[in-house]
Amino acid sequence: METLDVIIWKIRQRKGRAKPYEVRWKVSTEPKSKSFLTSALADQFRAGLLKAAQKGELFDTVTGLPSSMRQAPTEKKPVLTWYEFSRKYVAMRWKDAAAKTRESIVDSLTVAAFALLDGEAADLPRKDIRAAMLWALIPRPDDTAIPAHLENAVRLLQKGTIPVGELATPAVIRLIGQELSQTRDGKRAAPDTIARRRRGLNTALEYAVEIGELSENPLKRLKRKKTSRDTAIDRRRVVNPSQARELLTGLSYVGSWHRARGRRLVAFFATLYYAGMRPAEVVGLRQTDCLLPEQGWGLLTLEVTRPSSGKQWTDTGTVHDERGLKQREEQEVRPVPIPPELVAILRTHLEEFGTAADGRLFRNERGGVLGASTYARAWEESRRFALTPQQVTSPLAGRPYDLRHAALSTWLNAGVDPATVAERAGNSVEVLLKRYAKCLDGQAEQINQRIEAVLKG
């Protein structure tokens, strides 16, 4: 349908948008709008509308355009919007990505989308955008119905993100950089969060180059604000052997003796400390991974890790993913010798509690995979039993993971070769020394003595 009933308004500027200059007009009762990167482009488009209206041209109520501004259809490459590209990229990566990686990818693409909205989608609340992107990006059968509470947001996002090709524009990529560096409440995000999001987006944009949507990765042109990233372990968190034993004893008092809520976790935390393992590695530890002789040192041969993720990120629909070891090839193992003290604790655990149906040493009270919230609550109670009131409010062993930090620090302070420590811990030597440098006792005194000797001549 065509009409002469046209109203054309002034250009509206909307800061913080990928295309901040918006031309608005109405054809009969149908409101129309089109956004532009610069005011000059918006002026040019609006001038075309005004000229056509002054000449008495008929405007189409569907496209909103006069005949002089409507182009004959030509064969050209379909425009790929950020929304559709994100779905395509996630579907390509999903099968071979770990659950945590899937979560990180979706987060990076969603945060970038905040800078790439157009039209009505730009007016959606951010929580609705995040929820809609989360639902849309997780691969599902094509006939899956959109949840009613997300239907409007998904519909607007389907037509309301700019083409991927426009990310090559400097102003657009700068807006994306700003979004990557912000938390949900608008504050500056932690350096690790910014780096993680940037890594995820960088890989996605490399894929956009690969499929011909971009000629180069625009993120490489975006300069990063240099921030100090202190990844070293806070030595205040590190317990000594005596404190570690007190904490393990404290676990025995957590919960009733009959339910053994704390006692069944003593061996779990002991493995974190004496073997220096990650919690996800201990969660996946099986009886077949353990060599526990009656006397002397034992050996744990690690092959499986059970990191905790949301149910939507795993293939099984359970909270825990099942993967190979971190930073290692699939099916690669890591042998970890364990001292007699831990061997005895694990043998006692097996005698009293046995294993889960699939051979795992540690499980919850219903036999399922041991959850992070379960062992974290028990650990906090143990700290209150074992530590002084001042220590309870301090960072000392504040998290279960701190037992791993304590183990690696203890090995290094005992004079164990860093290469051996790194091999047992599943780290590189470079990362190991960088993270645990502040936990090495005695180094400052030795250095001071050397300097003093030089000064005395």
From TrEMBL:
InterPro entries found in the cross-reference section: DNA_brk_join_enz (IPR011010), Integrase-like_cat_sf (IPR013762), Integrase_catalytic (IPR002104), Tyrosine_recombinase_XerCD (IPR050090)
PROSITE patterns: TYR_RECOMBINASE (PS51898)
Signal peptide: none
The Tyr recombinase domain, residue ranges: 234-456
Alphabetized GO MF terms: DNA binding
Keywords: DNA recombination
Keyword match Transcription: no
Origin: domain of life: Bacteria
Example GO biological process: DNA integration
SUPFAM superfamilies: DNA breaking-rejoining enzymes
Tagged with keyword Transcription regulation: no
Descriptive protein name: Site-specific integrase
Species the sequence originates in: Herbidospora galbida
